[in-house]
Amino acid sequence: KRLILSVLSDYTTMDSALHRVLGLPVSHWQRLKDAFVERLIGYHKVHSLQPDGSRIPKNFYIRKIHTVPHPMGTYLGMLMDANGRMRDEALKEQKIVLVDIGFGSTNVIVMERMRLSNRCSGTIDLGVGRGFEVIDRKLRQETGYVPRFDQLYQAVRMGSIRIEGQTFNLERIRAKAFGCLAEELADRIDRMM
């Protein structure tokens, strides 16, 4: 709640009531959407911390909050143009599966004829972080070196890492790690359907 309120406080004044849309991971959205709305509607007072260490009090009112599962914005962006008009009428009749792969989890929603299918939608506790863990473990086994996360991220992007003047190629390890991750995700998504 505090994190959401601190972000919202930068976009409002007491003069205007807020109407916002809040995206939640699918599993949270299915279980907690009403509780989020209840906790956030109403008057709020927060303190905004400034770079010099001072605090500025901010008061604001949230009138209405709509909650949506994370990949819903992608779905709406696919369906509608910037003016809110349908891009392709045929999409209204199709079954569309949206997969939002994050670092620690993957959100899946199924839209059928523009309606959310709760039965087939959910959150899988598996994301790209697993691939990074596999690469990190393999790198430690082969070199004894434990990279900082920013170094590992850059090495995975580039396909190699320099350790004590020697370059280690990570392309094969990267392909295997993320290939296994993709297979496991596909299997788990298939079981959801």
What does this structure look like?
With 193 residues, this protein is α+β, with helices and mostly antiparallel strands. Helices cover 41% and strands 30% of the residues. It has six helices and nine strands. Strands 4, 5, 6 and 7 form a four-stranded antiparallel sheet that branches. Strands 1-3-2 form a three-stranded mixed sheet. The chain has a two-stranded antiparallel ribbon with strand order 8-9.
Which keywords apply here?
193 residues; alpha+beta; four-stranded antiparallel beta sheet; 6 helices; 9 strands; 41% helix; globular
Layout of strands and helices, then pairs:
Layout (H helix, E strand, L loop, with lengths): L1 H8 L8 E7 L1 H15 L1 E8 L5 E15 L2 H8 L15 E7 L4 E7 L2 E2 L5 E3 L3 H16 L5 H10 L1 E4 L2 E4 L1 H22 L1
Parallel strand pairs: 1-3
Antiparallel strand pairs: 2-3, 4-5, 5-6, 5-7, 8-9
Helix pairs in contact: 4-6
- Straight-line N-to-C gap: 33 Å
User: How many alpha or pi helices?
Assistant: 6
Q: What is the number of beta strands?
A: 9
Query: Beta-strand percentage?
Result: 25-35%
N-to-C series of helices and strands: HEHEEHEEEEHHEEH
Query: What structural category arises from helix and sheet content?
Result: alpha+beta
**Uncertain parts:** none
Largest sheet: 4 strands, antiparallel
Overall geometry comes to: globular
State Rg: 22 Å
Percent of residues in helices: 40-55%
Average of per-residue pLDDT values: 88
